[in-house]
Design a protein that fits this description.
The chain has 15 helices and twelve strands. With about 400 residues, it is α/β, with parallel strands linked by helices. The protein has two domains: about 140 residues, Rossmann fold, CATH 3.40.50.2000; about 240 residues, Glycogen Phosphorylase B (Rossmann fold). A six-stranded parallel sheet has the order 2-1-3-4-5-6, with helices on both faces. Helix 7 packs across helix 9. The longest helix is centred in the middle third of the chain and has 29 residues. It is globular and about 60 Å long.
């Protein structure tokens, strides 16, 4: 266990145990808690299973016995942590950053000491009835101060200045559907048609609603199903819609979008995915999230976001990071964007491939408007969406601090 320097200014600092498992959001949450002046200890032991790991369970229990904590925090819902906190009657605060998040199907989601914060409104709406006193909606945030400690050098500008950049996977390597070899042609035909229809619609995901019970039964048999744990509620439609068809839809959308852009504009593509189908893009390899990404965001005239399709309404972390770093953001439309930001003032949003290309052309020709929007977006993140601000809200809601 290590303890950071305490920049304490909170009138009643809390004792918090932060259980880490190498999530990309952990450093931002850590910084936000430190800025609030709370006392933080860390459990960095990794679990072999999110559900059943006796060594991890014993280690966490021993830690909670040795010192009084006001709460335990993790990124995403971890059933084994919930079990231990329920036994010790300690509030367990978690903040989802992934969708799908299969651990939410665990029966432990109903434990009364949970304080589960979900970033996607549709995710919240689905799981809230299972534990209405303990599940809350909370959009994601940006590690604003960290992103803005970065200063650009002349070499950075030489390396990263570009018209348009995209950082991320094409999802080809993440798509379970690509690994299926025994799917009947009629199932593939239906999936292909469903994806083509979904790709024409922004802001509404209808994949799950389009699946019949009979289709799901046949798909499950053909896919060679691996059931969830014994104390999980298996939502077959949601699993097929999100992890198979949804990821395939994301893959097809990203390849189509990046190809369209690269055929008309200069596109810098930072990815470790196979990019052989995108010969006109400038392939830049991977981008380190701490050292390279903020520089790319700042140096790109246009930063592109394409939300993973299973995130039905919410805003992914990339939106907050780009805007918080002061980059100009052009994103696909998501239903929650106008609830948190002003379109055309804080960021730009596209609702079709034609609209995307038109907006790229417009903003590349209007530097002053583009820069003003980027500044507005950055100000909005600083004022409302930093980790410090969001965590203060979470702790107040979760444990009344």
């Amino acid at each position: 266990m290590e303890k950071p320097t305490n920049h304490s200014f909170h009138p009643n600092p809390l004792n918090i145990l932060f259980c880490k498992w190498t999530s990309i959001c952990e450093s931002g949450i850590d910084h936000g808690l430190q800025q609030l002046g709370h006392n933080i200890d860390y459990m960095t032991r990794l679990f072999d299973s999110v559900d059943y790991d006796k060594g991890y369970l014993d280690a966490l229990a021993a830690t909670l016995q040795a010192k009084r904590y006001d709460c335990v925090i993790t990124v995403n819902f971890i059933p084994i942590v919930s079990r231990v906190c329920n036994i010790f009657r300690i509030p367990y605060i978690c903040w989802t950053v992934d969708h799908p998040c299969f651990q939410l199907y665990s029966e432990t989601i109903q434990n009364p000491w949970n304080r589960i914060f979900m970033f996607d409104q549709s995710q919240y709406d689905k799981f809230y009835p299972l534990n209405p006193d303990c599940i809350y909606y909370m959009p994601l945030a940006c590690d604003y101060e960290a992103w803005n400690t970065v200063t650009l050098t002349e070499e950075d500008h030489r390396n990263y200045d570009c018209d348009i950049s995209f950082i991320g996977s094409t999802y080809e390597e993440k798509c379970k559907y690509n690994q299926l070899t025994d799917i009947p042609d009629y199932i593939r035909g239906y999936v292909d048609g469903l994806i083509r229809a979904q790709l024409n619609v922004y802001g509404y995901n209808f994949i799950e609603d389009s699946l019949t019970d009979d289709f799901c039964r046949q798909f499950k048999e053909a896919a060679g199903w691996y059931p969830l744990g014994e104390d999980y509620t298996e939502d077959t439609k949601a699993i097929i819609a999100d992890t198979y068809i949804g990821y395939k839809c994301t893959e097809q959308e990203r390849i189509m979008t990046l190809r369209n852009i690269s055929e008309h504009f200069d596109l810098d593509l930072y990815t470790l995915s196979d990019v052989s189908m995108l010969p006109k893009a400038h392939h830049r390899g991977g981008a380190d999230s701490e050292t390279m990404m903020p520089k790319i965001f700042k140096c790109s005239k246009i930063n592109l976001n394409m939300t993973n399709r299973p995130i039905k309404t919410g805003l992914p972390l990339r939106i907050f990071d780009i805007m918080g770093a002061g980059g100009f953001l052009l994103s696909n439309y998501q239903a929650e964007i106008p609830e948190l930001f002003e379109i055309g003032t804080d960021l730009a949003v596209y609702e079709s491939q034609e609209d995307l290309l038109n907006q790229i052309g417009y903003y590349l020709e209007h530097d002053d408007i583009r820069q003003e929007i980027a500044k507005n977006g950055q100000d909005k993140i600083r004022e409302l969406h930093s980790y410090r601000i969001k965590l203060e809200q979470i702790l107040r809601i979760g444990i009344g601090s």
